Amino acid sequence: MSDDIMIAANGVNKHYGNFAAVSDVTFEVPRRQVCAFLGPNGAGKSTTMKILTGYLAPTSGRVRIAGFDMETQRLLGSERIGYLPENGPLYSEMTPESAVNYIAKARGLNATRRRDRISYVVDKCDLGEVWHKPIYKLSRGFRQRVGMAQALVHDPDVLILDEPTSGLDPNQLVGIRQLIRDLGKNKTVLLSTHILQEVEALCDRVILINQGRLVFDGLIGELTKTEGLEATFHRLTGFLATA
User: What is the reported pTM?
Assistant: First the structure.
């Protein structure tokens, strides 16, 4: 595998009894690429993302993150990942300050590095006004930004973001989208979203799955060259519009 390939899934399957949530999914994502991971609800996106991050073990297949096998070298691979799960759990009685500090310490950042990285994420995730408020008092958008700060605080090489802009207001969207663009200049970003306009605004490439299977993997221009992104999405996922 090339040193520039930061996410590699090879023949990944996940079965629950007779139900195949993910079937033979194979793809690679290089450094400095923002890649959309699309599919309808229940397509297997979140399951695949959990497998990539090591939160779930595949039934079969292999995943490498930054060259580390997530079966045999999971801790080393996890050190290189920042993960924002959909509706990610937060300790509601903590403040953003204590929550992000806790994650930074758990990631092994020393005091100087911790101070620098926390200053960075407070600014980039625009958390200053709520930094000392209990998380349970925060809006969904602010909670989402706390989750993003936790994913970024250790400066990971790979970001796996499940619905990163969920719950954000239009002003917050602008800031987070710009942050993702900036991160993609040096890092690998795999993001799941239902907002197709976001894909066109942010992403270089699209991986599309349907019913657990890969149905498209290519540059966004290839997906939209003959029809719009929405029409292509509907066609590849078997949606038939009715009058």
Answer: 0.91
